């Protein structure tokens, strides 16, 4: 319940709408509960006495009550809808803002599909609980109190039936809720599994088609879809058990009331009108109990979703800016002092261990190493995408943990190993690097990244549509656009994480030449190809998360066996990597 209370803090300006809605529901219920009293009078004073004037007068009063109940009900619907949908929008906004603040370590705690479910399905569940459950949550208790009170006013003897029915209904509700609570959690987890499979398939649809694995993916989807269906059936099969139990109890109560009430009419201690009104109140009370039970079921499901939402909102952000953070980065010098790192505190081994490395401002450094040697991990410590577990990383002579995160990351430009473009035009994507860049600046960055040539051929040029994830350009073109986008940041440190692997060697040489013209920028190049780092000021060879050797190309070629092996294997025959290039 504390998770739901935690989320209600996001009601914000919609609290007024909730309060008005609550008041309107109480007024609506009062009007409806007054109608049976009038009905009793119209039967006993009007129908029994054949007094048409009384029938018309009381009939008009009943119609007025019904009309007022309708108006207040419509007004409630307006305020409740505004409150619930505004509440849902604020929760989604809060979750999205929190995810934007997450460090990579925080994102490792959640699957992408699970975050999507928590921002969509789970929020909809809580939102619907407010929209669909708020009225019965207020109306149910109001009608229950008013109905029982008026029933005792009509006939205290017959009202004893409530003391028999209430414990039975309460026991049924407790049993159903206790059984169904964990089922709703499993239901949302099954939804996560379904979203994971759908997301993976759609993201990798080209690989699926290339390997003719469509049927395999269909079978995998069928499996998770069936899991969701089975969990849903089991959950809602249990949820509906309260309905027949309530109906059985309600109809049994009505039979008893008719039996005893009929005897009281024959004995002359009860009128037909009062019995009719009493039955109306019985129905109202039973319906109110049904409403309360449905609210409990709605709340039970919403509590499972509220807990999942609260996990996102309560996740402690691992990396934040310190108080009195330094906002000015003097230069692009980088120093690693006895740095060790592991992704999880309980991990048995360090991904990086004992790293000591100095990169002077304006220097160009190449990083080589086999797959899994933690090359990407090393450079991700520079902009604090992760924090070093041990030791210090210094940029511009200051520990990176002393800098304002935004200022630090603005000073570091990273071209990721996995190129990411967003839906929209080329211009929209390039302006991620500099929102204020004019066309001349954009074209200059594209020329440096060797992207101008193919952009001039594309219809629209800078305004060409890239499609979702950049599907309208090839892998090499994606890499060049990502390089141009990063150059527009004008960073003090420029990191290329194996980001020219999809371009041919001639284009790569042109990009290297353009980069060499950048002065005052520290350049770190992670590469698989020796040709990409041969001309750098120093080359760092990583092996199993440790620095194996540091030196220039000629020094390493003369003394380091690992570098010699990489060099000879790649340069044999004049460049074995030529066949992997993307000339798009």
What is the mean pLDDT? 83
Q: N-to-C SSE series?
A: HHHHHHHHHHHEEEHEEHEHHHHEHEEEHH
CATH topology of the largest domain: ABC transporter transmembrane region fold
User: How helical, in percent, are the residues?
Assistant: 55-70%
CATH class value of the largest domain: Mainly Alpha
Largest sheet: 6 strands, mixed
CATH superfamily of the largest domain: ABC transporter type 1, transmembrane domain
Count of alpha/pi helices = 20
The helix/strand class is alpha/beta
Give the total of domains: 2
Spatial ordering of strands, largest sheet: 6-7-8-3-9-10
In angstroms, what separates the terminal alpha carbons? 56 Å
Per CATH, the architecture of the largest domain is Up-down Bundle
Low-confidence stretches: 573-584
Beta-strand content estimate: 5-15%
The shape is elongated
Radius of gyration: 35 Å
How many E strands?
A: 10
